[in-house]
Structure formats: C-alpha cells, structure tokens
Amino acid sequence: MRRVTLIAVLAVLAIVAAGCQTGGPEVRVELTTRPRPALPTAIPTYVHSEPPRTPHPPGALCPTGRPPEPPRATGQPDVTARVNRAWDRIERWLRAHAPATLATLKAPASARRVRAAEAAMSVGFPADLVASLRRHDGARTTNLSTVFQLPPMYGLMSLDEVRQDWRTRCGIIERAGDQPGWWWHAKFVPFAQDFGGDVLVVDQRPEGGGRVGLHSHEDGMHFEGEPDSLATLLEQTARALDSGQPCGGYRAEVNEVGGLDWVPA
C-alpha cells in the first residue's frame, strides 16, 4: 500500500514539473489525509459470573436419624476375617518394631455405638469398616510422632471423629448450595485423616461399592489409584510392614521415639 502511494505522489510531482517546463496551465495539487480512528483507551474485560446459589436447608443433602441407606452389609464373614487377619499382622509387626505406635490404637467400638453412628448419619457402613471399628475405635492423636497411620499419613478416626467430620463436610455443601457428588456426598463415610483437612472415605453410594477415596478439602473427591476397599488397604499395609516393600510409594520406618513413620521409598 505504501509503495502504491509513493508511485502516485511521484507521478503527481512529474506532472507538476512538466507543467512548469512547458508553460502550461498551473496545476494545483492538494493532499489531504484522512483522520485515523481513535484507539480505545482501555481493553474491554469480560467477567463470567455464576448465578447465585441458594443454601440448602440443614439436613436436606445429609439427612440424619433415618434408617441407614444402604442397609448395613451383613453376612460377610469372609470380609470380617480378612480385616482381622490384616490387623493381626499389623499389630504383630508394631509389637516387635514400634510398640509406641501400637499403644496408640484404641479399644474396640461396641456394636451398639456403631449402629448409633449409622443411624445418626443415615448410611450403612460397609462390612470391612464395621470389622475395623470393632477391632480399634481409631487411634490416639496426642503425639503425631507415634500415632498409627495408614500409608502414607492417614490416622485412624474414632466413631466420634467420623460423625463430627461427616457433619462438618455436609454442612459446607448445604450452606454453599452445592449439588452432592463432586465435592462431598452424604454417602461418603470418612475413616482416616491426614490432620491437614483431607480424609480417606468409603464410598457407600450404589455405584461406589465401598471403594476407598481421598477427599481433598480443596478440590473434592479423588478415586484414581485408591484401593477398592478398606479391607484391601489394611492388607496392603500389613504386607508392606512384613515385607519392607513400599505401599503407595512409601515404606515403613521406625523413628527415634519408637513410632511408625511412612517415608518416600
């Protein structure tokens, strides 16, 4: 475009020069420029806003005091036996190598208290969680250097902690007006915590089948790479302790106070 304009200007100048030389009529040339459009003073911004959410009434997403749904899984002696065998192996290793951690395991929860927790949360616990609670109602957390933890850093929760944590997370989605499922669901039953806001859960939704999932307080549920059940997780833990092999990328180590640690393999 600039080249065409330059040629045109030169042609005009040539005509002017020719007119001057031949004494021809005066040639008057007026050059005009078009005003340029003003540039915008600011770049427009586009703001995406979600419609306001309406908080759910308390208990709308996480009802309490109803018959547990799904009902308690009963008649599964093989699952109970798997859990007890895994705990036998875990306790035997702790007794020999980390007695300070063994001492943090609490006494069993009574069958009555387990049923009361299920009724309070309106969700039936899977058979392996019931069997584990009937073995140990969580672990004492007064000293994190010795507390028993599932690999890599999840301390067993007591029934009281299970109920409290469940109520807290249910309250968050109800107040936020969220839909259940992505961040939290009433059928997620927490059983172990990392003391930083994240928990391991068993998924008691019909499609969950009691699988283990990790609930992050920042971005919700994750199931990829987690065991298919709590019984499997306990067996993996026992195997890692007995063999010295890693579990989920972490291996067992006894710290300076005689407690069990899980360190990167």
SSE layout and pairings?
Blueprint (H helix, E strand, L loop, with lengths): L1 H21 L54 H21 L1 H4 L8 H11 L5 H7 L15 E2 L3 E3 L2 H18 L11 E6 L5 E5 L7 E6 L3 E3 L7 H14 L6 E5 L5 E5 L1
Antiparallel strand pairs: 1-2, 2-3, 3-4, 4-5, 5-6, 7-8
Helix pairs in contact: 2-5, 2-7, 4-6
Structure write-up:
InterPro entries: Knr4/Smi1-like_dom, Knr4/Smi1-like_sf, KNR4/SMI1_regulator. It is a single chain. The chain is α+β, with helices and mostly antiparallel strands and 265 residues long. The protein has helices at 2-22, 77-97, 99-102, 111-121, 127-133, 159-176, 230-243, and strands at residues 149-150, 154-156, 188-193, 199-203, 211-216, 220-222, 250-254, 260-264. The protein is built from seven helices and eight strands. The radius of gyration is 35 Å and the shape is globular. The model is unreliable at 1-24 and 42-51 (pLDDT under 50). It has a domain at 77-175 and 231-264. Strands 1-2-3-4-5-6 form a six-stranded antiparallel sheet. The chain has a two-stranded antiparallel sheet with strand order 7-8. The two termini are 67 Å apart.
